[in-house]
Amino acid sequence: MKIMIIDDNVPMAEMTKDHLSQKFSDAQFSIFNDGMKAIEQNGFIPDVIILDYQLDTLNPGALNGMQILMQLKKKFTAHVICLSAQEKPEVSANLIKAGAFDYVVKNQQAFNKIENSISRIFNQKLQPQKKDSKNPVIAGLILIILALVIYILVNKS
């Protein structure tokens, strides 16, 4: 598993890596403190990206978290977990709509929540998809229609 961490707070990025490497000992990590550098690099193809939503807010020309998320989704198939010190439901909702897998507020539980999100990602990948489980409503409707057709044919005579 390859995990990319994008955070302009280098000590925070290192702490995130240290915590996750205890849980996911076989993981490879790559840390970037600049969103554009992470997007432009070609040597590390991540399975999971942990993105600081408020990355580089002091640089007036920098992309915001939403713009970086959109660029990451264009380049990588990885699941993106966004982090922020702000607990704003509207930001969380917009990021999820834009393709983020999860939104985690930086607090005392943040590392555990990131760990849980990564576990959910890999549990989803490991579970086989059932063909008929994609739309059970359609399968039910087809059975009802077939039953009606048989009923009409039997009672027609």
Q: What features would you describe in this structure?
A:
This protein is of the alpha/beta class and 157 residues long. The protein is 50% helix and 16% strand. The protein has one domain (2-129): Response regulator (Rossmann fold). The chain is built from 6 helices and 5 strands; from the N terminus they run βαβαβαβαβαα. A 5-stranded parallel sheet has the order 2-1-3-4-5, sandwiched between helices. The longest helix has 21 residues, at 136-156. The protein starts with a strand and ends with a helix.
What is the strand and helix layout of this fold?
Blueprint: E1 2-6, H1 10-23, E2 28-32, H2 35-40, E3 48-52, H3 65-75, E4 79-84, H4 89-97, E5 102-105, H5 110-126, H6 136-156
**Using only CA atoms, what is the Rg?**
22 Å
Instruction: Describe the strand arrangement of the main beta sheet, using strand numbers.
Output: 2-1-3-4-5
What would the average pLDDT be, to the nearest integer?
A: 85
- Class by SSE composition: alpha/beta
* General form: elongated
The CATH superfamily label reads Response regulator
Number of domains: 1
Unreliable runs: none
Summarize the entry for a quick read.
The chain has 157 residues and is of the alpha/beta class. The chain has helices at 10-23, 35-40, 65-75, 89-97, 110-126, 136-156, and strands at residues 2-6, 28-32, 48-52, 79-84, 102-105. The protein has a single domain, classed as Response regulator (Rossmann fold), CATH 3.40.50.2300.
Descriptors:
6 helices, about 160 residues, five-stranded parallel beta sheet, about 50% helix, Rossmann fold, alpha/beta, single chain, elongated
